[in-house]
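Feature request, filed as a ticket because there's no other form

It would be nice if the structure record came with a short human-readable summary line next to the tokens. Right now we just get the raw output. Example of a typical job, pasted below so the devs can see what we mean:
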Amino acid sequence: MEAIPGETMDERARALHNASTVVDTHCDTILSMMRGERRLGERSDKGHLDLPRLREGGVAAQFFAVYIEPQFKPDRGLQRALEVIDVLLRELEAFPDQTELALSVADIRRIQSSGRVAAVLAIEGGEGIGGSLANLRVLYRLGLRSLGLVWNQRNLIADGIAERRTGGGLTTFGVEVVQQCNELGIVVDVSHLTDPGFWHVAETCKGPFMASHSNARAVCDHPRNLMDDQIKALAAAGGAMGLNFAPAFVAPKDATLADLLDHLDHIVSLVGPDHVGLGSDFDGIGATPKGLEDATAFPRLTQALVDRGYSDDDIRKFLGENHLRVLKEVWRG
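Raw output as currently delivered:
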């Protein structure tokens, strides 16, 4: 049987992984909780992650996406977002010995130091704000710290990639949303945006923004991945992108951990080591690259990065410090 890169950890990789703050900027796990399939704090053989598996994988902070399913669009997005947030918050409250909602980078580091997983509340799809900046401000007070402006369809904010035929980007309301996110301290997430929408965000956003779960289009030609000039613009704004484990975004076929790291190599060759991290899309993808079967596999990434010759400092950046730098600037703490 072919060996999986990083299957056996050496002493350097193990120590480095254990000492790092590992941040994953996207998962869709809470939908499984909505369906009553499993509990967040109980180890399961279903899906890709739960709190016990995150802790085993050394993950310090996990972004939980509030995804708005198509049947709730366009008019019931806010209602559905609140229902999903309610389930997430109740799951966090049920397992206080394992997790806590994080509102700042200081929170993430404090929660990590207690041996628990910091949970970050994110919305995937601007339908979740119900077409209102007032709703966005209230959601911020509930703990929202990252907003994916679109999923694949058009909404009041912008066009998603399924609508790229139109050439549309941000609407006037979309510009106001980006500006309000900047004022509040919510990360603007461009994953799923059309290319014109990306450029509108780059022009509008004050400070860094994020592509929470997108790869490099030059390595794998998929519209959900970023082009080289987009990666350069993201980096110029001080932002970061999270590598997505969806096989179709990684390689044309038979995606592996090594293929995923080819994206990282390419991004580093373009903009240096300060603008790429992890955004698994766990529980939002039907399959994973070989070697990254669930959240317990994150240490394999560290070993594979060691094997590729990256320095300890750069590996710590890839595992989480790049994301934390962006979050600290946007969240202002």
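Something like this underneath would help us a lot:
The domain at 11-331 is CATH 3.20.20.140 (TIM Barrel).
The radius of gyration is 18 Å.
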